[in-house]
């Protein structure tokens, strides 16, 4: 469709995503078809989210038609993903996938408010693909960098009293700058910057343990030809439909050292890195061959 472009899918850790409760629509008319965004505590403005983690469970909760639900875990928590008749490719892949498995997911955040006022966030999956451990490991590094970049912008803003106008979210524009997004996030959430820095440290610490274990196994293993990942989701398939926030081309992030790491299967991480400063990269999560 000429002139159509997808919203960039942002790299967000699960803990931050599930702490978000501020949504708004773009455009002056605020009509039902205007893009809807979720502003996170660190100032990420998300219409779509890109995450990589471990699919720990799945089930078909549909009646007459299949409607699949899965739980995906990253180093900071878990989130439910859904795929049904309006996401046929994602639903088919989820139906045929065995858990546990490393998966990459592109989806739209879905907010549901309970009767007692709590906000529950899930992802409506647009695309799902099985990936390998290296992909998972790179995703956590890229997501950590992006989170730290947002925290740096956030730390340069000044906390302000929440205004009645802001609470309605009716004047927020998708054309806002990252600094404006950060200011709005800090006003709405009163963001604890140190809390999210510690979240990043925990995520990187879990990655450090996984990499150390992988190096130990590689040292003891006999030399064999390197096999292609089963998923085929390497950089050769990053060219296509689902626009993904570009991995930051910053200096290497070293996982935090000498912090205890609990041996939980929920420790996850990852996505392959591209050297570029651009915000948008294309990423194909296509049909399996």
Distance between the first and last residues' Cα: 25 Å
Structural class: alpha+beta
Overall residue-averaged pLDDT value: 75
CATH class term: Mainly Beta
Largest sheet: 5 strands, mixed, barrel
The ordered H/E elements are EHEEEEEEHEEHHHHEE
Strand order of the largest sheet: 5-6-7-9-8
Stretches with pLDDT under 50, minimum 5 residues: 162-171, 221-241, 251-289
Radius of gyration: 19 Å
CATH superfamily: Nucleic acid-binding proteins
Q: Topology, please?
A:
Layout: E1 9-11, H1 14-18, E2 22-25, E3 36-39, E4 45-46, E5 48-60, E6 68-74, E7 77-83, H2 88-96, E8 101-113, E9 119-130, H3 133-155, H4 164-168, H5 178-189, H6 193-220, E10 242-245, E11 280-283
Parallel strand pairs: 1-5, 7-9
Antiparallel strand pairs: 2-3, 3-4, 5-6, 5-8, 6-7, 8-9, 10-11
Helix pairs in contact: 3-5, 3-6
Description:
With 289 residues, the chain is α+β, with helices and mostly antiparallel strands. The chain has one domain: Beta Barrel (OB fold (Dihydrolipoamide Acetyltransferase, E2P)), CATH 2.40.50. It is 28% helix and 25% strand. It is built from six helices and eleven strands. The protein has helices at residues 14-18, 88-96, 133-155, 164-168, 178-189, 193-220, and strands at 9-11, 22-25, 36-39, 45-46, 48-60, 68-74, 77-83, 101-113, 119-130, 242-245, 280-283. The protein has a five-stranded mixed barrel. It has a three-stranded antiparallel sheet with strand order 2-3-4. A two-stranded antiparallel sheet has the order 10-11. A hairpin with a 5-residue loop joins β8 and β9 (119-130). The radius of gyration is 19 Å and the shape is globular. Mean pLDDT is 75; it is low at 162-171, 221-241 and 251-289.
């Amino acid at each position: 469709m000429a002139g159509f472009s997808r919203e960039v899918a942002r790299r967000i850790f699960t803990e931050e995503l599930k702490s978000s409760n501020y949504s708004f629509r773009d455009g002056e008319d605020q009509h039902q078809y205007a893009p809807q965004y979720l502003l996170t505590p660190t100032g990420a403005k998300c219409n779509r989210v890109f995450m990589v983690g471990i699919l720990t469970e799945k089930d078909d909760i549909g009646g007459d038609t299949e409607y699949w639900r899965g739980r995906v875990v990253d180093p900071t928590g878990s989130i439910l993903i859904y795929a049904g008749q309006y996401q046929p490719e994602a639903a088919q892949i989820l139906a045929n996938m065995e858990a546990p498995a490393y998966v990459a997911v592109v989806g739209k955040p879905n907010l549901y408010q309970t009767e007692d006022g709590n906000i529950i966030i899930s992802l409506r999956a647009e695309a799902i693909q099985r990936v390998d451990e290296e992909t998972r490991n790179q995703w956590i590094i890229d997501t950590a960098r992006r989170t730290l970049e947002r925290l740096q912008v956030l730390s340069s803003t000044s906390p302000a009293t929440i205004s009645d106008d802001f609470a309605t979210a009716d004047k927020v524009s998708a054309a806002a700058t990252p600094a404006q997004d950060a200011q709005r996030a800090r006003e709405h959430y009163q963001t604890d910057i140190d809390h999210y820095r510690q979240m990043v440290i925990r995520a990187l610490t879990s990655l450090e343990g996984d990499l150390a274990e992988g190096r130990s196994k590689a040292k003891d293993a006999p030399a064999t030809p390197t096999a292609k990942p089963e998923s085929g989701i390497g950089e050769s398939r990053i060219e296509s439909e689902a626009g993904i926030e570009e991995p930051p081309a910053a200096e290497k992030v070293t996982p935090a050292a000498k912090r205890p790491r609990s041996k939980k299967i929920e420790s996850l991480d990852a996505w392959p890195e591209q050297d570029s400063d651009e915000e948008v990269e294309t990423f194909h999560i296509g049909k399996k061959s």
